[in-house]
Design brief:
It contains 9 helices and 7 strands; from the N terminus they run H-H-H-E-H-E-H-H-E-E-H-E-H-E-H-E. The protein is an alpha/beta fold. It has a 7-stranded mixed β-sheet, with helices on one face. The longest helix is centred in the N-terminal third of the chain and has 14 residues.
Length: 242
C-alpha cells in the first residue's frame, strides 16, 4: 500500500463560486442531458428516494467531469441517487471506477446496469470495519453516511490520512441551518477545516443564500432552471483535501 506522503499532491483549483459557475457553463449541454436522464430514474414505479437536491448533485457531477478521477469512493448510498449521478459523470468522462459502501443494499436494486456495468463495486457493511477495502488510490471522495461526530472523527483520523492531498471531497448534511448543529459530523468537519485554514464551498440556501441565488441565476441563464426534483435543502460542503 502506498503511503500518502510518498505521492505528489494533486494540483487543484479552489472550489469557489467562480469555479463552479465556470463549470456550469463549460458542461452545460452534458449537464442538461444528464439531468433529463436522472429525471427518468425518479419516474414511477421507481422506489428510489433522492437525497441530494439538484444543485448538490449537479456540483458533484461537474467536479467529477473536471477532475476525471480514475478511482471514486462513495461512503453512504441509501437508494442510489448520489450513486447514479457519480456513475453518470464517470460514463460521460469515459473513464473511472466507483467504489461504494453502505450498511444497507437498497442501491443494488436501484442502479441501472447501463450505468454500473464495468464501473462500479459495491461493498455492504460499515465502512469503519472495511477500511482495507477502501482504495487509498482514490482521487475523489463522496461522504453521505452516518452524520455523527464520532463518524466524522473516524474518517478524519483514519481515512483522510490514507488519501492523496489535492482530491475533491464532498460531505453531505452539514448546513441544514445557518450553522452546523453542535456535536454532529458537520461541526467536527468544519472545525477540522478551520484548524487547517482549509476553505470549503457550499451552496446551502440556509448558510449561503447569496451563493445559492447566484448559482440559480447561472442555471436559469443556461436553461437549467427547471427542477429535476423539488427540494429547498442543500446542506452539502465541498473542499479540496489538504
Amino acid at each position: 500500500m502506498h503511503q500518502p506522503d510518498s505521492r505528489r499532491p494533486l494540483d487543484a483549483r479552489p472550489i469557489d463560486l467562480d469555479h463552479i459557475s465556470r463549470l456550469y457553463r463549460t458542461y452545460a449541454k452534458d449537464l442538461d442531458r444528464a439531468r433529463e436522464r436522472q429525471r427518468t430514474l425518479l419516474a414511477p414505479p421507481t422506489s428510489m428516494k433522492a437525497q441530494l437536491d439538484d444543485i448538490e448533485a449537479e456540483i458533484t457531477y461537474l467536479l467529477l467531469r473536471e477532475a476525471r478521477p480514475e478511482t471514486v469512493v462513495e461512503i453512504g448510498t441509501f437508494h442510489g441517487w448520489s450513486t447514479t449521478w457519480i456513475l453518470r459523470a464517470l460514463r460521460d468522462n469515459g473513464t473511472g471506477h466507483l467504489y461504494s459502501h453502505d450498511i444497507v443494499d437498497h442501491v443494488v436494486r436501484e442502479v441501472p446496469d447501463t450505468l454500473s456495468a464495468g464501473r462500479w463495486t459495491f461493498t455492504q457493511g460499515d465502512a469503519r470495519e472495511n477500511l482495507e477495502k477502501i482504495p487509498d488510490s482514490a482521487d475523489f471522495l463522496f461522504i453521505d453516511a452516518a452524520h455523527s461526530a464520532s463518524f466524522a472523527r473516524w474518517y478524519i483520523r483514519h481515512l483522510f490520512p490514507r488519501l492523496r492531498p489535492g482530491i475533491p471531497v464532498c460531505v453531505h448534511d452539514v448546513f441544514h441551518g445557518r450553522r452546523a448543529l453542535p456535536f454532529t459530523e458537520g461541526a467536527v468537519v468544519l472545525r477540522w477545516l478551520a484548524e487547517r485554514e482549509n476553505p470549503f464551498f457550499t451552496a446551502s440556501r440556509a448558510h449561503a443564500p447569496e451563493i445559492h441565488d447566484r448559482l440559480k441565476d447561472v442555471k436559469r441563464s443556461l436553461a437549467l432552471g427547471h427542477p429535476v426534483r423539488e427540494s429547498r435543502d442543500n446542506p452539502m460542503i465541498f473542499f479540496t483535501l489538504r
